[in-house]
Amino acid sequence: MAPPKTVYAALPATTRGFATHMFSGTTPGPKGFGPNVVYTNGRSVFIRNIQDPTIADQYSGHAHNTTVAAYSPSGYYIASADVSGTVRIWDTTQRGENPLKIELKVLGGEIKDLAWDSESKRIIVVGQGSERFGHAFLFDSGSSCGEISGHSKVINSCAIKPSRPFRAVTGSDDFNVNFFEGPPFKFKQSNRDHTRFVNCVRFAPDGSLFASVGADSQILVFDGRDGSLVGKMDEASAHKGTIYSLAWSPCSKEILTASGDRTCKLWNVESRTCIATFTMGPSPNDQQVGCLIDPAGQLLSLSLSGAINYLNRDQPEGPPLRVVNGHSRPVMSLAYMPESNTLVSGDNSGHVMHWDVATGASTVVLQADAKPGHSNQVSFILAQGPTHAVSIGLDDTVRAVEVEKPAFGSAVHALPSQPTAAAAHPNFSVIGTNDGMLHLLSAADEGPFRVLSSINAKLPGTAVASLAISPCGTEVAAGASQNGTIHVFTIEGQSLLVEKPAFTLADSNRATVSSLAYSPDGLWLAAGDSVNQVVVYKRDSSGYTSQGEDWVYHVSRITSLAWSSDSKHLASGSVDTHVYVWRIGADGKPSSNKTALLHSHVGQVSALAWIEPKGKPEGDELLLASAGQDGCVKFWPVPI
Predict the structure, then answer these.
(1) Which segments within 1-74 are labelled E, that is strand?
(2) Separation between Cα atoms, residue 3 and residue 599, nearest integer Å
(3) Does residue 614 surpass a pLDDT of 90?
(4) CB-count burial class (<10 Å; 0-12, 13-18, 19+) for 481
(5) Pick from 320, 281, 284, 282: nearest CA to 304
(6) How many CB atoms lie within 10 A of CB 307?
(7) What are the ranges of the WD repeats (predicted)?
(8) In which element (H, E) is residue 436 found?
């Protein structure tokens, strides 16, 4: 299977009140790339190019949610850790395969931070545990190379001096900064100048100094050789909130700090004065919980929202040079707008994103008051004409998205019950709810939404499980949540729903009809069920006829179906993490010829969309976008 052509990677996972550690590095070798930032989200580790964030690798070898990951100084390995106390060390050079070097269970609880020595031989990990809060070991054998002791509470951060003689430092919830000699590493002394939790400790690249930051807003600087306190950064310019993270410049002369007061500050180490203050927005999500300085000197900070900010050191009072936005939660819905070559996506936290497919630029879709448009999962994003999309959430609201701005429009409609299915036509949309009702709504570009018609679908199992609208806009297919039946309704005068006789999805299957899609030419209706089956029906004046070729390679619920513009390729996504692309053969019948995109996402595939800027296939391959439980949107080349 070919790797994805482009990845809109999930943002780093963040938690309010806690630091999120990011590290930089470069992958060597013929397939190498960099400099990169490495971070975690869910069970995945993401390696993301700093210059072009659409270049990204995803590692998904952990069985539990990951917490921190860091390159070895050589770049050949990454050590990643998770909430179970497990560390996995894996190869970076074999992209897509990333063979495992070793897996070790080192702590009894969540690992908070880890550090490599400059020889890429030794690792220290710290975090929670019943017997110990830290451990030092050799990366290739797992053998102990010292003892991390002297703390009475969880250790939040650690660092190893990058030059000989090696030293190590840790910071803890017990307010202590502990200093170690080695290897083998052994406790030397404690510093108790912090009055609250210590969140981050880091050595300067030249090893001469190290610094610590904490919830007391202090920045302490220590001698890197003996651990003695050198001084504190100017308190007159201090942060007004918890400091979560610090990073050293490559020259070892500056420190960048990130704080819950929604600012980052750049400090001169020699004079211990603040050089620049970068102020973010007014929202709680603008709290700064992580920071990094890449090898070229680019300042990066991490917002609580997950956004990665490229800070402008020449104009600190202005906006960042760039903000990489995206999803940090599972992506549930996706719509492609060919006229503007843009994608709109929604996730299970209520966030809606706008993507420029040509550049990868991302924008958060907000209301006029700069607030999110939904307070809960965005279950459906529907393209409706060249300028508008419709978003439908589990907050029981329907909203218009103005794609060109991009922003939520003023049109909003409150549904009487929870939406369970939806489909759109340029002139209207149809929404099914958990009480079995179908609601026909006016188009998003016509001002306030109007309910044109409502009807009780009377489906087996009550709830409407899936919907599709024929391209001509005269028929609506509704999938039942029981008995495998599809009910077809006609739309008369674009304002009235009238039911036609129902037909069964498959005689041998009584599962939920979980997904429906009409082909653009209107000749086919594809149906997927909650077990593993995709069935294609031919549509003509006499009705719908099953074509006999049931596509059953999935092993779980079908979550999404999408036809290409030429009506010859049908993509299906499933809870089983796979995407299959099926074909209509030259004889005009469903073919067994398929393209398999196995393990497309970590977790279920939630939504699919074909990327066709000119409304038709170009060249010898198609491009398919998929969205999934891992918070990513991926673009897959599919041969025609």
Answers:
(1) 6-8, 23-27, 33-41, 44-49, 56-59, 66-71
(2) 11
(3) no
(4) buried
(5) 284
(6) 23
(7) 59-91, 191-232, 236-277, 324-365, 551-584
(8) none
Note the residue count of the chain.
640
The one-character DSSP state at 5 is S
Nearest Cα to 558, choosing from 532, 590, 537, 579?
Answer: 532
Nearest in space to 168 (alpha carbons), one of 187, 154, 191, 150:
187
Mean pLDDT of the chain: 95
Angle at 369 between CA 364 and CA 373, to 5 degrees: 50
d(CA 470, CA 58): 37
Count other Cβ atoms within 10 Å, centred on residue 599.
13
Task: Kindly list the strands in the beta sheet with 263-268, ordered across the sheet, starting from the edge strand earlier in the chain.
Answer: 243-248, 254-259, 263-268, 273-279
d(CA 150, CA 147): 10
Q: How far is 636 from 633, CA to CA, in rounded Å?
A: 10
- Per the CB < 8 A criterion, the answer to whether 560 and 613 are in contact is no
What is the pLDDT, as a whole number, of residue 508? 43
* 444 secondary structure, DSSP code: G
> Residues near 357 by Cβ (< 8 Å), separated by ≥ 6?
336, 341, 342, 343, 611, 613
The model carries a pTM of 0.95
Asked if 172 contacts 110 with a C-beta cutoff of 8 angstroms, the reply is: no
Mean per-residue pLDDT, 55-82: 98
Q: Which two tokens stand for residue 318?
A: 């202005």
Q: In what order do the strands lie in the sheet with 524-529?
A: 513-518, 524-529, 534-540, 543-546
pLDDT, tens only, 243-282: 999 999 999 999 999 999 999 999 999 999 999 999 999 9
Q: What is the reported pLDDT for 530? A: 93
DSSP 252-267: SSEEEEEETTSEEEEE
- Given phi > 0 = left and psi -120 to 50 = alpha, else beta, which region is 326? left
The pLDDT score that the predictor gives to residue 510 is 64
**Strand ranges inside 280-387, DSSP E:** 288-293, 299-303, 308-311, 322-324, 331-337, 342-347, 352-356, 362-364, 378-384
> φ, ψ for residue 542 (rounded to 5)?
-90, -10
Q: Looking at the DSSP assignment, which residues form a beta bridge with residue 597?
A: 579
Q: Are 398 and 448 within 8 A, CB to CB?
A: no
What's the CA gap between 169 and 437, in Å, rounded? 62
Q: What's the token pair of residue 224?
A: 């890197």
Q: Measured between alpha carbons, how far is 591 from 553 in angstroms, rounded to an integer?
A: 13
Residue 485 is predicted with a pLDDT of 87
Do the Cβ atoms of 22 and 46 come closer than 8 Å? no
Please give the C-alpha separations between residue 314 and each of 54, 146, 220, 251, in angstroms, as whole numbers: 26, 44, 26, 18
Q: What are the tens digits of pLDDT across the range 219-229?
A: 999 999 999 99
Token pair belonging to 406: 């991009």
pLDDT band at 511 (very low <50, low <70, confident <90, very high): confident
Residue 355: helix, strand or coil by DSSP?
Answer: strand
